[in-house]
Amino acid sequence: MSKHRVSRRQFLSYTLTGVGGFMGAAMIMPMVRFAVDPVLKAAGASDYIATDVKVADLTTEPTRVDFSYEQQDAWYTSTVTNTAWVYKNDNGEIVALSPICKHLGCTVDWNTDKSNPNQFFCPCHYGRYTKDGKNVPGTPPIAPLDVYEYQEKDGYLYLGATKPNPIGQGA
Ligand code: FES
Question: What's the start-to-end Cα distance of the chain, in Å?
Answer without folding.
Answer: 95
